[in-house]
Write a structure and sequence with these properties.
The structure holds two protein chains of two kinds.
Chain A lengths: L3 E12 L2 E13 L4 E5 L6 H9 L6 E4 L2 E4 L2 E2 L5 H7 L4 E4 L3 H4 L6 H13 L3 H14 L5 H4 L9 H12 L6 E5 L7 H18 L2 E6 L2 H7 L2 E6 L2 E7 H6 L4 H8 L49 E3 L2 E3 L13
Parallel strand pairs in A: 3-9, 3-10, 7-8, 8-9
Antiparallel strand pairs in A: 1-2, 1-4, 1-5, 5-6, 10-11, 11-13, 12-13
Helix pairs in contact in A: 4-5, 4-7, 5-7, 7-8
Chain B lengths: L2 E14 L9 E14 L3 E5 L6 H8 L7 E6 L12 H5 L2 E4 L13 H12 L4 H14 L16 H13 L5 E5 L7 H18 L2 E6 L2 H7 L2 E6 L2 E7 H6 L4 H9 L49 E3 L2 E3 L4 H6 L1
Parallel strand pairs in B: 3-7, 3-8, 5-6, 6-7
Antiparallel strand pairs in B: 1-2, 1-4, 8-9, 9-11, 10-11
């Protein structure tokens, strides 16, 4: 049985201009020890779908799903009291901006200790011991002194390490990392990504890595979900995805990477922009920008067809354009 | 070919308050001896982590700040000679694009007014001619004439960055400084903006100074590269030579840390331990020695000078050892 099972998850926001569908029919299965990556451009719904899972969306959001189960618990009908017992303990999340996710008024030690107190009921002495252990684990030197540090005394990389320490404090079964390295320099980014993967192997937890950086995906993930305008468009194993992308969007996105077109004069681009609230096309959401679009693409929305871990939402997938790697 | 912009041993020091109330003021060496010469139509990329002095160098080049020592030459003229008499005229030759297009455009002005502002200040031409100029420039960056009367909030990030490019090119400058122009954009949009930048560079024979931390973009666009670390240039030379065989240990680490989609481009990941030291209190000798894998006792005593080795300039005592690895 999978750890997390999501069927047909949709999130709509009530706005002045009417309802806006940020996430549209997302399915997801995550097993223990999986490393799943969700990629997509801004506004593709990758963060919102995970926030919906965590129950962290504001009241203007309307979350609907056929099924949303985590370790046998139904997250759709769960009471907030019961949800609070899981969030931060069995599912935890790391956010993009480490500097603004930490509370500037409290020491690092206090903030890590909070979840230990809340979820595990450790006393002061045990909390301190565990905090030092955790900071050591995430590679912060002089851990005992750092417990008394305030967030402003830490660099961006250090703050992100503290966030990771906080997230893994209660040995979660599922860790969601939302663009964990985007705000950091490349050398620090490499350290943080390596740390996350090492921790995942060590602790045997499932890791969901949300990112827009194709390089990070290629080097770390096993399964990849590509999202576009709130919908999943493709799901594949990482090597297969980069070698033989089947959805035209994935194909175009990969071609737009500067490193893939060193031999060309111009970078291949995707014309147009991601559809917003007002200009959603009636058929396939990618059809106005798709170079392979045909008449039927404008009429109906293709369904997500999944077979053994591979999924695709397209009427005219690209066949056999395998590129040599 | 003419040299459009040249820097000779540029330095910029800031006096800052020391730590603590009675501490002596300290000197922060933001840029400590950078030299470069860039011909029309060429691109120089300045690479490095945050805090390495890239943006300060851009401020020196655009005459926003005056160098503490050293000289800058724009079209062969030194703007700071003769008490800065030539600065207003030389400003027309050099323009800048900033990183965040959401912050660099005035939200209360229409696109037309934004584009015409540099013309009003610097040239004496009629309103009709100005409008003509603005509309031609809008067309060049792939926007439509009707966008002239719109406000910046009506545009997406990629379109705003095009407006910023159009504004920078209104005066037909000889040099364009682009400070992280695509790092706030999604991949598919990034490719569009890079194409526009490269097309316009060719059309207007611009010398382009491209500041970036994204090496896959730099590899695509640069003719020359300058790698900086804590205010000092560590490696400088032809882009292709450096990408094929980086000699300085820091350049190697930077290239290794950049995640690559293509397994062929993947380099052995040289792990950098630790964080960027504080620029207020840089390590003695070679500033990189405490994170370097080839460091010897000598490195913490003597500061290496930039020397021509392996067809490029590199500042390292043990460059022969590092280049072998």
């Amino acid at each position: 049985m999978s750890l997390l099972e999501i069927r047909n998850l949709s999130v709509e926001f009530q706005t002045v201009a009417g309802n806006f569908r940020a996430v549209d029919g997302v399915d997801m299965d995550i097993n223990e020890t999986d490393l799943l990556s969700i990629v997509g451009e801004s506004g593709s719904g990758k963060s919102v779908s995970m926030l919906a899972l965590m129950g962290l969306l504001p009241w203007t959001a309307n979350v609907t799903a056929d099924k949303m189960e985590f370790a046998g618990l139904d997250l759709l009908t769960i009471s907030s009291r019961a949800r609070r017992k899981i969030i931060g303990k069995d599912i935890s999340m790391i956010f993009q901006e480490p500097m603004s996710s930490l509370n500037p008024c409290f020491t690092v030690g206090f903030q890590i200790g909070e979840s230990l107190k809340q979820h595990l009921g450790l006393d002061r002495k045990a909390r301190k011991k565990r905090c030092i252990e955790l900071l050591d684990l995430v590679g912060i030197p002089a851990a005992e002194e750092r417990l008394k540090a305030f967030p402003h005394q830490l660099s961006g990389g250090m703050s992100q390490r503290v966030m990771i320490a906080m997230a893994i404090a209660c040995n979660p079964k599922l860790l969601i990392a939302d663009e964990p390295s985007t705000a950091l320099d490349v050398t620090i980014q490499a350290q943080i990504i390596d740390l996350l993967v090492d921790l995942q192997n060590e602790k045997g937890m499932a890791l969901v890595l949300i990112t827009h950086d194709m390089g990070v995906v290629a080097e770390t993930a096993k399964q990849v979900i590509v999202m576009y305008a709130g919908q999943q468009v493709e799901q594949q194993q990482v090597d297969a995805l980069f070698a033989t992308p089947r959805h035209p969007y994935t194909h175009a996105l990969l071609n737009a990477l500067p490193e893939r077109s060193l031999h060309l004069d111009r970078l291949p681009t995707i014309e147009g922009v991601v559809p917003g609230a007002g200009d959603r096309p009636s058929g396939c959401l990618f059809s106005p920008r798709c170079e392979f679009a045909q008449d039927d693409c404008n009429e109906a929305v293709p369904a997500m067809v999944s077979t053994d871990g591979r999924g695709l939402r397209c009427f005219h997938p690209i066949e056999n354009v395998g590129r040599e790697l | 070919m003419t040299v459009a912009i040249e820097g000779r041993d540029l330095k910029r020091y800031y006096q800052v308050k020391g730590e603590g109330f009675f501490a002596k003021p300290a000197t922060l060496k933001a840029v400590d001896g950078a030299s470069f010469a860039l011909e029309s139509g060429e691109t120089l990329a300045i690479v490095g982590e945050s805090g390495c002095g890239k943006s300060t160098l851009a401020r020196l080049a655009t005459m926003i700040e005056k160098p503490t020592a050293g000289n800058i030459f724009i079209s062969g003229r030194d703007p700071h000679a003769n008490g800065g008499a030539e600065i207003p005229r030389l400003r027309q030759d050099i323009q800048i694009i900033f990183q965040n297009p959401y912050g660099s455009l005035n939200p209360r002005k229409k696109v037309g007014a934004i584009l015409e502002e540099p013309v009003i200040i610097n040239l004496k031409i009629s309103a009709a001619e100005r409008r003509q100029l603005a509309e031609t420039m809008l067309a060049k960056v792939g926007l439509r004439p009707e966008h002239y009367d719109r406000y910046p909030h009506m545009f997406s990030g990629g379109q705003r960055q095009r407006i910023a490019i159009a504004r920078a090119l209104m005066l037909k400058p000889k040099v364009l400084i682009a400070d992280e122009p695509v790092s706030a954009l999604d991949i598919s949009i990034q490719a569009q903006v890079l194409n526009i930048l490269m097309d316009l560079q060719e059309e207007m024979d611009l010398a382009l100074v491209f500041i970036s931390h994204d090496l896959s973009v730099v590899r695509r666009i640069a003719d020359q590269i300058m790698v900086m670390y804590l205010g000092k240039v560590v490696e400088q030379g032809d882009a292709k030579t450096i990408f094929e065989n980086p000699c300085h240990p820091y350049t190697q680490a930077l290239l290794g840390a950049t995640p690559a989609v293509d397994p062929r481009l993947r380099r052995e990941r040289v792990k950098l331990t630790g964080e960027l030291p504080s620029p207020l209190n840089p390590p003695s000798g070679c500033a990189f020695h405490n994170r370097c894998r080839f460091a010897q006792p000598e490195c913490s005593v003597n500061t290496p000078e930039l020397q021509v080795k392996f067809e490029r300039q590199v500042a390292c005592h043990f460059v022969e050892v590092a280049a072998e690895a």
